[in-house]
Amino acid sequence: MIWPLPQVxxxxxxxxxxxxxxxxxxxxxxxxxxxxxxxSYLKWVSDTVRTLRLxxxxxxxxxxxxxxxxxxxxxxxxxxxxxxxxxxxxDEISARQQDxxxxxxxxxxxxxxxxxxxxxxxxxxxxxxxxxxxxxxLEGIPWHDxxxxxxxxxxxxCIVLPLVVIDELDDQKRERARTRARRALNAIYAYFExxxxxxxxxxxxxxxxxxxxxxxxxxxxxxxxxxxxxxxxVDRAVALQSLLEQPVxxxxxxxxxxxxxxxxxxxxxxxxxxxxx
Length: 277
Prior knowledge:
The protein has 277 residues and is an alpha/beta fold. It folds into 2 domains: 104 residues; 159 residues, 3-Layer(aba) Sandwich (Rossmann fold). 51% of the residues lie in helices and 12% in strands. The protein has a 6-stranded mixed β-sheet with strand order 3-4-2-1-5-6. Strand 3 and strand 4 form a beta hairpin. Helix 1 runs antiparallel to helix 2 and helix 2 packs parallel to helix 5. The longest helix is centred in the middle third of the chain and has 32 residues. It is elongated and about 75 Å long.
């Protein structure tokens, strides 16, 4: 899925992608001869770059628009005079139409899936160390108290786990915290082993305390992660905040991660490690 840059809302991204999709579908509307098609296609690429360059990452722009086939068409002075190239151009136009349509559908589906959250819900992204070193384990952590001041007692809390958290827990299975990591992974897997579309209920809520939900934040298969896990985790939290146009709370024991999250614009809660009290 194409994610927006920080400070770009999901609604703005979706509107821009819909405009791009309409433009792609209209490439043949200005004529079907080789010259007209090539000119219309190159203009669509230029218009799309202007529309999206401040909204999405350069890697997404290259994947969606600035492909190798585009550069091949651009390098030929008269594409219409090269029939093999024109056939390749038609294939590329068809691929761009399919990919832009898929991009719109993916963002629409993602936004729709998060509309099912109860109102109001506070989104919370925990650092991996919270699941490893908090006095309580995942199901027992009093999440409302952890982010006290950012949530009311009857508000729902949605714990969002980017896949980098799952992968870090997997890595910790071979380290000192392996027992805690295994228990955390087993608890998470128990919620999702039968599906549930990446969402589950940890606590249903009561008359005294709001519900606690758990959701996975899945990466696109072709997405390249940032090399440092803290940077990757903060990046995913910021991207979610921008896409949903809703504040995201970040919880960690680490000073470095807390500083990164605060600078990135997240509401940050730095916990005190039990051994340091």
